[in-house]
Amino acid sequence: MEKRSFKGGIHPLYNKELSQGKAIEVMGEPKKVTLPLQQHIGAPCQPIVEKGQDVVVGQKIAESDKFVSAPIHSSITGKVVEVTEKHIVIEGEQNSKFEVKNVRDIDSLTPEEIRSIVKEAGLVGMGGAAFPTHVKLSAPEGKKFDTILLNGAECEPYLTIDHRIMIEQPEKIVYGLRALLKATGAQKGYIGIELNKPDAIEALRKASEAYDNIEVATLEVKYPQGGEKQLIKAILDKEVPVGGLPVDVGALVNNVYTAAAIYEAIKEDKPLFERGVTITGKGVVEPKNLLVKVGTTFKEVLEQCGGLKENAAKIISGGPMMGRAVANLDEIVTKGTSGILVLTEDEVELVEEKTCIKCARCVDACPMYLMPNYLAAYSRKSMHDDAQEYHLFNCIECGCCSFVCPSRIPLVHLIRQGKWEINSKRAKK
Amino acid sequence: MNNNFVVGPSPHIKSPRTIDYIMWDVVVALIPAMIAATIFYGMAAFYILFASTFAALFFEWVVLHRTFKVRDFLGDGSAAVTGVLLGLSLPPALVQDGYLWLAVLGSGVAILIAKHVFGGLGKNPFNPALVGRAFLVASFPVMMTGRWITTGVDAVTSATALAPGQVDFTLRQLFVGNVPGSLGETSALAIIIGGIYLLAKGHIDWRIPGGFLGAMAVMSVFHVGITQGINADFLQAAGHEVLFQWFSGTALLAAVYMATCYVTSPTTKKGRLYYGIGCGLVLILIRYYAQLPEGATYAILFMNALTPIFDRFTVPRTFGEVKK
């Protein structure tokens, strides 16, 4: 098969076999959910329900009048027991099934209507960054979309949820892609899938057979193949300009899972209040792919997987490359939670950092053709001008540099800090 | 369930290739050259390699560690690499002549002065093994370059293939290593095996040895063209000259193991290629036009000095950047 790719990147151990073969299971109903008012990049939502009020599953409970924001819906039927500036807590019965209706079809909708459905359903990018989807769908003045790319690469090690949705519900993904094509007026849609998921490639090829303007693009197995800019480079052979957006090359990238959610929003009028999550790692008793209600605690989710093993040492929200380590199990599953990864003691490396030996492995691995060695050194010394001259802000924080560093220098961490320092300096001015 | 977990910045997984792993793997890659040296020069090779390597580890330990534990003593492997490389660059006659202590002295200079005076691993501007070697050649020229022994037979003095007026060794002899020379440079075959291992494991970039040997080849062809003109035998003569330049002396050992030293070579891809070409050029200029042994040593040390400049002026085009 064709093997599209980009330059740089790494080949970590994928460890997908832990959960790859597990079909998505519906998780048991949580008694209580805590819904954070900010689950995405952008403006936080304001509650539109009060304490003591009864809500049903799928009911909108918070929204914002700001453009870059997505409303929040209750994930269970029950009573609002707490409303604070940070979150809304709902307690409910054990049975709050959302009734799936078949309300409408894309053919009867205008592009504007599709965009407003996407917005009302509270859709955000489900690959991890959780950027409101309707914002992405609006091309800035004077620019237009030619191509929609769906990211089914799932290049993060361990995670398998996108893989599962691709083989279990490929029609939904293709439908979502068609909706995106209509909403943006783009001509062509691609679904990019890494070659290590032949069953997903097969399923989506079959599901998209009837549509001439949709193509499945097969990708080399490599991290960060699913990075927005890397995916565009691999499939379209175009480079998003420095400081620019995919729309600058006429492209729009969405996650395959988001496309499936778009289907549910349009066809079933179902807002985003639950999502598939991969629960995996050698520290979990029984790794699974679960359909989890937004607002459930990690603790409850992990209990559904038989709990943690004795030697569990690190809990990560997301994948091992870009996910965030959480301090405890009170952490909440949000719209952007693609995985819960539990690493064991012997997988958590606590070694001291050594001097850079200038081996240049970071330079060779960087998919953005940067020099992480210099960026990190300049950031560490707060030499902001030099760091920017070496294109600090073009770093996508994929972590390839830190992964390969034999001296264990936290390169991407230092780069992130450098960016943060510069941004806060700018904000002060 | 316990509720105390490790937190820290992403990524949460790391490549298993730490400094220790890489350095010890380089030592592994040097095994063919060590074996070849022992086959051709017998116990002399063993004594010299042991002396230089043990001394390098000892000096490293003196600087870095206080307690004498085996693991600590072996360190991160970089001192071992330096010791073995230095040993491989020494003439086997040292043992017969009673100058084995030169191996120890060379390692001392390499580790103590070339490396730790500058701050240790990662901070030294010049390749420690080469500094040690350059020091020995400059201070003890007679012992270092005056006497060579033929392979297999002890006590017969000879000259290396590169010495002026020397009868030609066949390319086959040079390739296999059956000629007088320093321990490790004698067998091209052994060095190539080690080099392939390093390339296959991704420890070295082809650009440095490629540029190095490529530049040597181009210059050799020119040299043949200039000195004997373009005649019927040109191709054969040029081919012979290229292989002769590659397989004789330290060129191959230097291109594969010394020029590729991480710390002292550029970090940009282009920089690495230019640096490799520079090493090859300087080496061949020394061989053709200077009355100086140790072309490879001085060529690489000279290019080491230019490494920061290569890095500065070969910053890669970043993703999405349009070159003005």
Question: What this model shows, in words?
Answer:
The complex is a heterodimer of chains A (429) and B (324). Chain A is globular. Helices cover 28% and strands 19% of the residues of chain A. Chain A contains 13 helices and 17 strands. The model of chain A has no long low-confidence stretch (mean pLDDT 93). Chain A has a six-stranded mixed sheet with strand order 1-14-13-17-15-16. A four-stranded antiparallel sheet of chain A has the order 2-8-7-4, with no helix packed on it. A four-stranded parallel sheet of chain A has the order 11-10-9-12, sandwiched between helices. With 324 residues, chain B is mainly alpha-helical. Chain B has one domain (20-312): Ammonium transporter fold, CATH 1.10.3430. A two-stranded antiparallel sheet of chain B has the order 1-2. In chain B, strand 1 and strand 2 form a beta hairpin. In chain B, helix 1 (19-29) packs antiparallel against helix 11 (188-200) and helix 3 runs antiparallel to helix 5 (78-88). The longest helix of chain B is centred in the first third of the chain and has 22 residues, at 43-64. The mean pLDDT of chain B is 88. The interface between A and B is large, with 67 and 45 residues. Chain B: InterPro entries: NqrB/RnfD, RnfD_bac. Chain B: It is a multi-pass membrane protein. Chain B: Belongs to the NqrB/RnfD family. Chain B: Pfam families: NQR2_RnfD_RnfE.
